[in-house]
Amino acid sequence: MLINIILTTLKCSNLIQKDTVCRIHLKLSRFFVQRRYSSSLLGNLNNMVSKADCTGAGGPCKLRVNNIVKSEFDKREYRGLELQNGMKVVLISDPTTDKSAAALDVNIGYLCDPKELPGLAHFCEHMLFMGTETYPAENEYNKFLSEHSGYSNAYTSADHTNYHFEVSPDHLEKALDIFSKFFICPLFEAGSTEREVNAVNLEHDKNIPNDTWRLDQLDKSTCDPNHDYNRFGTGNKETLDTIPKSKGMNVRDELLKFHDKWYSSNIMGFAILGKESLDDLEKMVADKFKDVKNKNVKTPVWNTHPY
């Protein structure tokens, strides 16, 4: 339930940009649903922002949004931020919470996989957790969370990738420090490649008997083969190991290129819930994420229908 609140908040974390539409992730949303509803969504977001107290901010923040509209029964406090590196942030302060949580969303998913490497975005999601320069041990993150009543998960969608965790309130800052390094100095160790390819393959095997997954893939496979919607987003051992090797491709090298091209702070949204005050949460987040690189990435827009 807690993570659902965080993820729901995160989907609207771009409300601090007046020209940004909070996307609805429905079937083929990028191709026709978003266009149909973007005007009303934009109007709603503009109303939310116009009723808020938007101020410029010095230091690591260049924009701060106070007095975000909320239910009169909601006792939590909220604040929106845009960091100097372009990352959008929503802070949620609740002194009574028995769990802290955070989620980071990157506005890139499997539709941006190279045609010759289906599943690369999903593989990147797996490999990102395999240690950082600051915390090189592969299990450091999960070990810390499990020791402090927490857990983590991630998923790759068509046009975004999400990473999130929960932890006991007294250990939020340390968990956040470990988490933030995944987006600053990941290792992508070569020794982890084969194991994580196998993990992706197991995930694919799990999906095979599921009718929802089968129908979804049938939908993609029967669309225009030249459209980016014609993708196999999960990937498996064949697409991430067997076929690339037969073509002389180094999957880890391609992974590094993909991460370097797309993982940029200006297309990231972050939401955090903690018992700390908004000021303390702001300081914590700004300090942990200020070094995420802004590569001024422009996310793709698909103007043609896949059928």
UniProtKB/TrEMBL annotation:
Tagged with keyword Metal-binding: yes
Source domain of life: Eukaryota
InterPro entries: Metalloenz_LuxS/M16, Pept_M16_N, Pept_M16_Zn_BS, Peptidase_M16, Peptidase_M16_C
Cellular component per GO, a single term: mitochondrion
Domain Peptidase M16 N-terminal per the UniProt entry, residue ranges: 88-225
Hydrolase as UniProt keyword: yes
Pfam families for the chain: Peptidase_M16, Peptidase_M16_C
Keywords for the protein's UniProt record, in alphabetical order: Hydrolase, Metal-binding, Metalloprotease, Protease, Zinc
Boundaries of every Peptidase M16 C-terminal domain copy: 252-301
An example molecular function term from Gene Ontology annotations: metalloendopeptidase activity
Signal peptide: none
A biological process term (GO) from this entry: peptide catabolic process
Family under the similarity heading: Belongs to the peptidase M16 family.
Name of the protein described by the UniProt record: Insulin-degrading enzyme
